[in-house]
Design a protein that fits this description.
- With 559 residues, the chain is an all-alpha fold.
- The chain contains 22 helices and two strands.
- A two-stranded antiparallel sheet has the order 1-2.
- A hairpin with a 2-residue loop joins β1 (270-272) and β2.
């Protein structure tokens, strides 16, 4: 007879195995069995591929040969206070190795790990009285986030700083007791039940690991834009001339990529009176116009001010008149158009990168971009105009990742498994794409935002976000269910100094730029000793963070 029998006997062993397979997320912990798998697939494999690509990029050259000769004035300016000397100093830089860059920037993840372990240990001891907004917590945040960043970026005791952060993190983590095991492992997980009750379709709650990473990269970028004008800052970390990698190159790209991750929030379906609503193309264009005008205004103001005071300018960075604010201001205008081309933003991004890289490598456009005279408005700003294609693709790549990680997960299983797996897959995929570009002999170029550069930035940011997510899951998994998923007090999820920077990120960046210009006009930075430069940079950090802290405390959000 056909059909299913109602008297079908079920094997208890098979049923138990199926149940355990479908509910393995409820008992997932980072331990001696799971840690090797996570480290191997998330760090070792991408790291080996990345090392091989870096090793072979100068040994295998299959890409087209482009004339990279640069005509230079053999006379070096002798006056270190002159505009010509300052421009010459940051010209024709070659950057540093990928290994060194990633080692230095790993400081941000170690700082977060130390802070997270210390905060969780204190919260576990006395949840009822925990308050992360006290003066001692503020001082600890400055010490664990700002001091290591300063030491790493000035190439001062780098490995000592890493060792101290690792030791401190291990010490605080051991103070967090393991969560008690429930006697009945078959009983419903209270965390899963809480997720079912609190889930609202279309709702997006803040992701602490994303907020902290964006704020730390913003602090790194703001610090570098002034520190590069002092002798204490190694020039190997400054922006390269055309081809190569450096920390400042990574910081610029990370600014755009992370903006895309959070910028997709305006385009996601949202819950309005119980109905899912999606913004139309016209609404997206209107919002883009309102967002673009202030930023473009800042770009115009920056150009006028720098020209009026005869401020030093590296022309090959963006062009004669172009600056980074113009790139940021134009992104909101073109993003809605990119969303209309393909449903999957990754497809649009890949098309943009393939087309731009093909035009650069296989046509005379590449030679023109590098060596043409600046005779008109287009040729004078060719770097900013052409690199905008790459930055737009990078922004869309960030938005596609944001589509995966920003919306609230409907279940506890989906939240825990989706974030870790998606970030791990994205990291491996972008690293692989970038390595293929290296094998073809196409070096990354921040100046033109070519495909290898965009893949490098996207892969690195995906990797770092994945690491931050693992840190959060590892620490929070040690807390009892009633502590790990209940309403936590302020100061537990995000430190106040980073939350303030995130609250007004563009304003913080603008204040840092204004302070950089003011300090350079008032002080001859290249004549400062290391001790004097340290004091100036410390005051500079305090000054650009003070408005962010005051506006955050007052609840004022400009951007």
């Amino acid at each position: 007879m056909g059909g299913h029998s109602e008297t079908l006997l079920k094997d208890p062993a098979i049923e138990e195995w199926v149940w355990m397979r479908n509910n393995s997320h409820r008992y997932f912990r980072i331990n001696r069995h799971t840690a090797p798998v996570l480290v191997t697939m998330g760090l070792v494999v991408p790291g080996l591929l990345f090392w091989y690509g870096s090793y072979s990029q100068d040994k295998v050259k299959l890409g087209p040969v482009v004339n990279k000769s640069i005509v230079m004035d053999p006379l070096v300016p002798s006056d270190p206070t002159s505009k010509e000397y300052k421009e010459w100093r940051v010209s024709d830089l070659q950057g540093s190795s990928l290994t060194e860059i990633h080692t230095v920037v790993s400081i941000v993840a170690l700082s977060y790990w130390c802070w997270k372990c210390k905060t969780a240990a204190e919260y576990h001891r006395n949840p009822a009285k925990f308050n992360g907004r006290t003066l001692k917590h503020f001082v600890f945040e400055c010490v664990v986030f700002l001091v290591p960043m300063f030491l790493a970026l000035t190439d001062t005791y780098l490995f000592t700083t890493i060792a101290v952060l690792v030791g401190t993190g291990v010490y605080f983590r051991k103070q967090i007791p393991n969560a008690p095991h429930r006697p009945d492992k078959w009983a419903p997980d209270p965390r899963a039940e809480n997720f079912k009750k609190t889930f609202v379709p279309g709702k997006i709650t803040p992701k602490s690991y994303l907020s902290i990473y964006r704020a730390e990269m913003m602090l790194l970028t703001c610090f570098c834009i002034l520190a590069v004008d002092f002798e204490i800052f190694p020039l190997k970390y400054a922006k390269v001339e055309t081809f190569g990698t450096s920390i400042m190159d990574l910081g610029v790209g990370s600014f755009v990529f992370s903006a895309g991750v959070v910028g997709v929030k305006a385009f996601l379906p949202r819950n309005v009176d119980g109905k899912m609503v999606i913004t139309t193309l016209w609404q997206q264009l209107q919002a883009g116009l309102w967002t673009s005008f202030p930023i473009l205004g800042l770009g115009i103001a920056r150009f006028v001010l720098t020209e009026s005071v005869d401020y030093q300018k590296h022309t090959t960075e963006y062009g004669t008149h172009w600056n980074f604010f113009f790139t940021l201001g134009l992104l909101p205008l073109f993003v809605p158009l990119g969303l209309c081309l393909f449903k999957d933003l990754r497809v649009t991004s890949m098309i943009l990168l393939v087309v731009s890289q093909t035009l650069y490598s296989l046509t005379p456009l590449g030679d023109w971009l590098e060596n043409a005279n600046r005779t008109d408005i287009i040729s004078a700003n060719r770097e900013g105009i052409f690199s905008f294609i790459g930055y737009l693709a990078m922004f869309l790549l960030g938005m596609s990742l944001g589509q995966e990680v920003l919306p609230d997960a409907p279940t506890f299983k989906a939240r825990r498994m989706r974030l870790v797996s998606v970030l791990g897959v994205w990291t491996t995929a972008f690293m692989s794409f970038m390595l293929f570009s290296f094998v073809l002999g196409i070096e990354p170029s921040r100046r033109f935002a070519n495909a290898p550069y965009c893949f490098w930035v996207a892969g690195f940011n995906s990797l770092m976000l994945w690491v931050f997510m693992l840190i959060e899951e590892d620490v929070d998994s040690k807390l009892p269910p009633q502590l790990s998923r209940s309403e936590r007090p302020s100061g537990y999820n995000v430190p106040v100094i980073l939350e303030a920077v995130n609250f007004n990120s563009l304003t913080t960046f603008l204040v840092a730029n204004l302070l950089t210009g003011t300090i350079n006009m008032k002080i001859e930075t290249l004549l400062c000793s290391n001790s004097k430069a340290t004091v100036i940079l410390a005051i500079y950090i305090a000054l650009f963070m003070l408005p962010a802290l005051l506006m955050y405390r007052a609840g004022i959000r400009i951007r």
